[in-house]
Amino acid sequence: MKRNLLIPVALTLLLTVFQSTVFGQEKLTASMTTPASQLPSESVNGIAVVVNDEVITRLELQDRTKMVVQRLKAQGVPLPPQSELQKQIIERMIVEKAQLQLAHDNGMRVDDVMLDRAMLRMAEQNKMSLQNFRNQVEKEGTSYALFREGVRDDILLQRIREREVDSKVQVSESEIDNYLAAQQSDKQKNVEVELSHILIRIPENASPEVLTKLRARADTALQQVKSGGDFSLLAATFSDSAEGLKGGSLGWRELDRYPQIFIDAIAGLKEGQSTGLIKSANGFHILKLTGRRIAEQNAGGIPQAHVRHILIKISPTVTQEQATHKLAEFKQRIENGGARFEDLAQQFSNDSSATKGGDLGWLYVGDLPEFDSVISPLKDGEISEPFRSADGMHIIQLLGRKNDEVSKERQRLLARQAIHAQKLDEATLDWVRQLRDRAYVEIRADDKNS
Questions:
Q1: What is the residue-wise DSSP string for 290-340?
Q2: What are phi and psi of 309, to 5 degrees?
């Protein structure tokens, strides 16, 4: 089946640049920001929503709606009623706008050079030239210029979330100790689950009247779930979380990467079953367990690869084509016995590893995500073809493989990452909620049901 490039999975191909997530959900490409002061006078009647000192135009809303509808259809998710879909899309755009404003206020920018590199990586990961990638985007009914600006916004969104949320999530040594101790007796530590999610968001400092109204909305959603309603349709209709507009799917994740409140709620569920209402500080949740499986384990330890590389950075004076040609020449010289890899690395590599002959040591899968797919098919001693990463063009030589027992240091690192992921989900939702609640929002009456 042909993959629709507009589905959020495409945005994960930005690799180490960002992973725009709320409970692991990559955001649909954002629309551009339009300051109210810069709108021409004839566009005033086209304002759909005012967010602080900027606006969302009716045209932007129409473009986003078209993209969402295309995505839902591609995923086989039934479309909710038009009025509910419009409300959901407007809410997503308000939240995005508030985050982008904060990023801009903090001086964050994504220049054209960085954006061009991101687009090229997306094309390469789709095994296309940049022109073919552009053609595919436009073939699927989206303006390439709009798609490109959306990627710029996605990078900004990830940067501001990293600054405001990721960097502030702390994991203590005692938490790691407790986590590792619990894992020893946890029969589900190797379990992965796939969940779908509906969130009815509770504003900060909500009044009793507002709480009653939101509880009634959550009860309505729950009743329809329990009556056999299509969960993906109900998520698209009711959910205030970003994944609602993709049918509520949170995807496959290791069980311990979910918030503890979710882990406890699904403990007794079978596949296809859903929870009752789960109350958290952020709102009312409904979960559906759509899959459960045992994660693959390596009985002999964790695979590692010993590699070295040569990096040539792209610059105004060195094009990608020139770097590729030079690396291909290096590869040929090494294979013909005319030069040694380590000597060329010391002389020409633009990486700090050059002093060690390009040696990167023993790597676990995921240590350098952009290298994983290149290293995987190599045999001992084999040199890769030139490939691009965020840093520039590389060639890699595989020096050996081994299965390594997990060291205590590695165990603690993995535990820290799991705990951080748990906390990050909750912290991100809380931050987004507070940002949304602080924003001045005016939805123009004429556009509410347009």
A1: EEEEEPP--TT-EEEEEEEEEEE--BTTB-HHHHHHHHHHHHHHHHTTSS-
A2: -150, 165
Residues of the chain above pLDDT 70, percent: 85
Convert 252-266 to b/e letters by CB count within 10 Å (16 or more is b).
ebebbbbbeebbebb
Domain 187-297+409-438 sits in CATH at 3.10.50.40
In contact, 233 and 77? CB cutoff 8 Å: yes
352 contacts 431 by C-beta, under 8 angstroms = no
CB 340 within 8 A of CB 301: no
| Range 324-331 contact pairs with CB under 8 angstroms and sequence separation of 24 or more | 324/386, 324/393, 327/386, 327/393, 327/394, 327/395, 328/385, 328/386, 330/395, 331/383, 331/385, 331/386, 331/395
pLDDT of residue 58 exceeding 60: yes
Tokens standing for residue 164: 């405001």
% of the chain residues with pLDDT over 90: 40
Q: Say which DSSP state 383 is in.
A: B
Residues 253 and 292: their CA atoms lie apart, in Å, by 10
Q: For the chain, which residues make up each domain, given as ranges?
A: 8-164, 187-297+409-438, 302-404
Look up residue 357 and give its two tokens: 């002959």
Structurally, at CATH architecture level, domain 302-404 sits in Roll (3.10)
The answer on pLDDT for 14 being more than 70 is: no
Residue that wins the pLDDT comparison between 310 and 5: 310
- Burial (CB < 10 A; 0-12, 13-18, 19+), residue 418, is buried
State yes or no: pLDDT of 213 exceeds 90.
yes
Which residues fall within 8 angstroms of residue 159, CB to CB, at 6 or more apart?
A: 18, 103, 108
Provide the 3-class DSSP secondary structure of residue 448.
Answer: coil
Domain 8-164 matches domain 302-404 at the CATH topology level = no
Q: Interhelix angle for 58-74 vs 82-105, to 10°? A: 120
- Cβ neighbours around 224 below 10 Å, total: 17
Q: pTM of this prediction?
A: 0.62
Whole-number average pLDDT of the chain:
82
CATH 1.10.630.10 fits domain 8-164: no
DSSP of 178-228: HHHHHHHT-TTTTEEEEEEEEEEE--TT--HHHHHHHHHHHHHHHHHHHTT
